[in-house]
Amino acid sequence: MTATDISSLRDLISRFLAANGPTEQTSIEALTLEEGHAHLILRTTARGAAFLQDVQKMLEEKMTQHPAVTGLTLSLTAHRPTSSQPRQADAARGHRPLALGRKPAGRSAPPEACLPDVKAVIAVASGKGGVGKSTTAVNLACCLARLGLRTGLLDADIHGPSLPHMLGDQQKPTVEDGRLRPLERWGLETMSIGYLVDREQAMIWRGPMVMGALTQLMSDVSWGTLDVLVVDLPPGTGDAQLTLTRKLSDRLKAGGAVIVSTPQDIALLDARRGVTLFEKTGTPVLGLIENMSYFCCPHCQERTDLFGHGGARKEAEALNIPFLGEIPLLRDIRCSADEGTPLVLREPDHPASQAYMTIARTLMTELAARDA
After folding, report:
1. Is 162 annotated as a binding residue?
2. Binding positions for ATP (predicted)?
């Protein structure tokens, strides 16, 4: 891939749009080309989307004729109305704002249509960032796969996707029959917006675009038959959590939410908000994990409670939810995530790996009880 390839491909797309439709309605938002796979994001409007629906196949054929292109992913994002009048006019005509991954024509799939072949969803959440939620989600998913469950892992953090780095995979997904194929890694079916965009690209997207991308990662991916899909949620209690609980309510009732927190009071305060959100949306809370529970000096083995200790257990008791276990703060956990090999696979006998596995067995037992 060269700058010349990108430039010539961009010119090809611009000429096609100019020759086949209203260019003031559609423009190139982003274009990447890695190892032959082109990912094109077009910024458009409701009118432009209707035009693109008619000519999409022609555009895809044109792009795949380019000598540097062997695969293609096409996504849409929305023009933001400059005033309330265009938005109201669109609403009167039955048009909805477009977001990345939302299909131009037709309505969003109802909740029951999402993930029809996935038995249960486990949402790994936290009230705040920096508590090790993503590392926990990856290691728990690997443990569930090792226990024999057909397991998927979805990175739902649109603004800060970390899954590709933590799994050591920077490939691009392929498209079959108009749907993305998950990438298989460490026995997991995985998907992340990080697979589709440049690693250095800032995800400066507004709420509707984020929700559209999240919907695409759930509905427009060929997840296949899974016993469980582990979803690594972004931190907080906002739109992403509400979208997930709305669209996957049935799957979450067969699974549930796992809350990750450190022992310190400020993290537990935010974790409490997360528990409240899931309870209000009717999502079962499987339990609370205390991450970074303590630190063991690698030289003298002295244990230090850097963030306090036991706070999550007390909070779980106060909230009347299960306490799932403690994960220590260890350099090996951080190194394994940075190197792209989860600790439970790199060192399955490591004490931290055993802690992850114990929690995973508890979760599997709960899933089996709900499936009975």
Report:
1. no
2. 127-134
